[in-house]
Specification:
Length: 523
C-alpha cells in the first residue's frame, strides 16, 4: 500500500446501498464535524483506500457486490500499523451467509443494526476516528524510528569513512616521527639521558600507532572485514612475541613478570599477527592497571582439547558491576581526571572478537577492586604440523639504490636517511614529476612510492614507470591500508604494499625482495 496522504487521515468513506442513503448519511456525519466522501461503487472505494482514510461506513449490501473482493484486497494491503476501522450497517432480522463471510473478512469492525439512530451512527464513527488517531500515533512513531535507524546507518557509514581517513592522516605524521626516533637512536652518542629521551619518543609512537590500529580494528571487525590468515601455530612463540612488544611498558613500570608453560608444545589453527595482538593487549592492560613494581603472571597450559593463555596481575582489579561488561566496546573503569592509564576502552572488545573468530573464548575474573584480575584466552588445539620447521639463517643485507617518493618532505627525507644508515644508496624526491625524472637519472633498484601524491597519484606514476620498461621493484608506502587499496596497488603494478608508519624489519625484507607472509590487509 502506498504511503497515506495525511490530508485524508480522518476522511470517512461511505459506500451506501443507494445515492439517497449516502447523501443522508453524509449530512448526518458532516453536522457532527466529520469530513466525508460518498462512493457510488465498491471499485472507487477500493481505489480510495489506497490513498488514505479515517474510517469506512458500509452496509451488508456489499456482500452481494461483485467488487467486494477488491475492497477486501485493498484492506489486506494496509501497512503493518494500520487496521482501518469499519462500521457495518446490517439488517437485524438475520444475516445471510455472504454477510457472515464479509464480517469474517473485516478485522476491525463495528456492527450496527439497520436502521440505526443518528446518535448511534455518529457515536460509532467518532469512536472509530479516535481509534484511527491512535493508529496514526503508532505510524508516526514507526516512521520516526525508521528515520532514526536510517540516520544511525548513515552516521555509522560516515564514521567508518572518517576512521579510514583519520588513520591515513594520523599515519602520515607518525611515519617521519618513528623514522626520526630510530635515526636519533643510531646517530646520537650514547649517553643515558639522551637515550632515555629517545626511548620515550619511540615508546609513545608505538603506543599511538597501537591506538590507531585498535580504533580501526573495531570498525573492521564489526563489519566482518577482517580476514584471518590461519595456519597451524605453536603458542609459545606467540606469547614470546607479545611479551617482546610490551616489554618497554613492563620495564618502564618495573613489573616482575613470571612466565610458566607446559612441557609439550601447543598448536592452534590461528593468525599469528592477530593472536600476538590479543595477548599483547592483555599484557598491556595488566601493565597499565598494576601499580609500579607489581607482579604479572603469564601461564600457557593445556586443558582437555584446548590451549589456555592466562594473564594474571595484582593490580587495581575489576568491580563486580563492571565485570559482566568488561568486553563491551568503550567500557572502562571509572576515569580519573589525569587519565594516567590512557586507552580508548576498545582493546578488550577487539580481543574478544578476534578470539571468537578463532573459535575460541576469552574470559575475565577478579575478586574485586584492588585485588587484581585474570584474563584467559581459550583456543581449540590442533595436531602439530607434519612438515619440519624451516631453519634459515638471515642473509646479509645487499645494498640497493632506493628512491623514496613522498610529498611529505619530513617523511621522505627521514626515511632516506635511515636507509643510508643501513648501507643503501637512497635519494628522496617530493613529487610525481621528480620521481619520473629520478628514474632516469638515479636509476633505482627499488622505489618506495607514496600513493596520495598531488597532481599525479602514485598509481599513475607506477603505470608510467612500468611503461618505460625499466626493471625496478615498486613498493607502495602509504597511509591507506584497506583491502581494496592493496588490490589496487597490485593491479597497478606494485610488487608490495606497506602501511605507514612502516615496520623497519618488514621494510628491509621488502627492499631485499624477501616477501615473507602476505601483507596484512587493513580492511
Amino acid at each position: 500500500m502506498a504511503e497515506v496522504n495525511h490530508a485524508n487521515d480522518y476522511l470517512v468513506l461511505i459506500l451506501p446501498p443507494t445515492r439517497r442513503d449516502g447523501e443522508a448519511t453524509r449530512a448526518v456525519l458532516e453536522r457532527a464535524g466529520l469530513k466525508c466522501t460518498v462512493y457510488e461503487g465498491s471499485i472507487a472505494l477500493a481505489e480510495q483506500i489506497g490513498t488514505g482514510m479515517g474510517a469506512i461506513v458500509l452496509t451488508d449490501a456489499l456482500a452481494a457486490d461483485p467488487g467486494a473482493s477488491q475492497v477486501m484486497a485493498a484492506l489486506i494491503r494496509q501497512p503493518s500499523w494500520s487496521d482501518v476501522p469499519t462500521i457495518l450497517l446490517s439488517r437485524a432480522d438475520g444475516q445471510s451467509a455472504s454477510t457472515t463471510r464479509l464480517l469474517a473478512s473485516l478485522t476491525n469492525v463495528t456492527v450496527l443494526d439497520r436502521p440505526t439512530s443518528t446518535r448511534t451512527l455518529v457515536s460509532a464513527v467518532q469512536a472509530a476516528i479516535r481509534g484511527r488517531g491512535r493508529q496514526y500515533q503508532i505510524r508516526d512513531q514507526l516512521n520516526a524510528l525508521r528515520g532514526a535507524e536510517d540516520a544511525l546507518r548513515n552516521a555509522d557509514r560516515r564514521k567508518d569513512e572518517f576512521l579510514a581517513m583519520l588513520a591515513h592522516e594520523l599515519r602520515n605524521p607518525l611515519a617521519p616521527i618513528r623514522t626520526a626516533s630510530e635515526l636519533l637512536a643510531r646517530l646520537l652518542p650514547w649517553e643515558p639521558k639522551t637515550q632515555a629521551i629517545v626511548d620515550i619518543v619511540k615508546r609513545q609512537v608505538i603506543h599511538l600507532t597501537r591506538l590507531v590500529d585498535d580504533l580501526l580494528d573495531v570498525s573492521r571487525i564489526t563489519q566482518g572485514r577482517i580476514q584471518l590468515q590461519r595456519r597451524p601455530l605453536e603458542l609459545s612463540p606467540i606469547v614470546a612475541q607479545a611479551m617482546e612488544s610490551v616489554e618497554p611498558l613492563l620495564r618502564d613500570k618495573r613489573h616482575k613478570v613470571v612466565v610458566t608453560a607446559c612441557f609439550e608444545p601447543l598448536f592452534v589453527d590461528g593468525d599469528s599477527a592477530r593472536l600476538v595482538q590479543c595477548v599483547a593487549n592483555l599484557l598491556t592492560n595488566a601493565a597499565k592497571y598494576t601499580d609500579p613494581s607489581g607482579e604479572i603472571r603469564v601461564e600457557l597450559r593445556s586443558e582437555q582439547s584446548s590451549a589456555v593463555i592466562a594473564v594474571t596481575d595484582n593490580g587495581v582489579g575489576i568491580s563486580k558491576e563492571l565485570l559482566p561488561r568488561i568486553f563491551e566496546l568503550f567500557v572502562q573503569s571509572e576515569r580519573s581526571l589525569d587519565r594516567s592509564e590512557g586507552g580508548l576502552g576498545i582493546g578488550l572488545s577487539v580481543v574478544q572478537r578476534l578470539v571468537e573468530m578463532h573459535d575460541g573464548q576469552v574470559a575475565a575474573a577478579s575478586a574485586g577492586p584492588g585485588r587484581g584480575s585474570t584474563f584467559e584466552i581459550r583456543l581449540p588445539t590442533v595436531a602439530a604440523p607434519k612438515e619440519g620447521r624451516n631453519k634459515s639463517t638471515p642473509a646479509s643485507v645487499e645494498p640497493k639504490r632506493v628512491l623514496v617518493v613522498d610529498d611529505n618532505v619530513d617523511a621522505a627525507a627521514s626515511l632516506a636517511a635511515f636507509l643510508q644508515l643501513d648501507g643503501h644508496e637512497a635519494e628522496a624526491v617530493y613529487s610525481a614529476k621528480g620521481a619520473l625524472e629520478a628514474i632516469a637519472t638515479f636509476r633505482p633498484d627499488v622505489v618506495l612510492l607514496d600513493i596520495g601524491l598531488p597532481e599525479m597519484d602514485g598509481y599513475e606514476v607506477a603505470k608510467r614507470i612500468r611503461a618505460g620498461g625499466r626493471s625496478v621493484r615498486l613498493v607502495a608506502l602509504t597511509g591507506y591500508g584497506q583491502a581494496e587499496d592493496i588490490q589496487r596497488t597490485h593491479s597497478a603494478g606494485f610488487d608490495a604494499h606497506l602501511v605507514k608508519p612502516v615496520d623497519f624489519v618488514a621494510l628491509e625484507r621488502t627492499i631485499s625482495g624477501k616477501h615473507g607472509p602476505p601483507p596484512r590487509i587493513a580492511e
